[in-house]
Amino acid sequence: MNPLDTLLELIIPAAHAQAAGGAAPAQGGMLSTLLFPVVLIVIMYFLMIRPQMKRQKEHKAMLDKLAKGDEVITNGGIAGSVVAIGEVFITIEVANGVELRVQRGAIASVLPKGTLKSA
């Protein structure tokens, strides 16, 4: 006999015995059992999903407003001035004559004008 079959024979009769011997569950117990996961999902939405979506929307709006001459900092910590903007890549000048091409999504934030000169 297969060990899995033996295991199933031990589990299934026990489940039938519990269902037959116990009384029917109260409706209040069933409602609270179903209500807990729904409340948990709602809490997760407001604490995790909604703020993340808001940050993504703000980041996309910042990237859409980028213009030549803006001073930016990348996710890697490289600061520079925007020289050219493409669909996917942005060229930033990090020093006189030194230009880097980075992906649009790699721009972490836009710095106030004059920040790089004062640093």
From TrEMBL:
Q: Which keywords appear in this protein's UniProt record, sorted alphabetically? A: Cell membrane, Membrane, Protein transport, Translocation, Transmembrane, Transmembrane helix, Transport
Q: One of this protein's Pfam families, by short name?
A: YajC
Task: Kindly give the InterPro entries that the UniProt entry links to this protein.
Answer: Preprotein_translocase_YajC
TM spans (from-to): 29-48
Which GO annotations describe the biological process of this protein? protein transport
GO CC, any one term: plasma membrane
User: What is this entry's stated membrane topology?
Assistant: Single-pass membrane protein
Q: Which compartments does it reside in?
A: Cell membrane
* Family per similarity comment: Belongs to the YajC family.
Record-given protein name: Sec translocon accessory complex subunit YajC
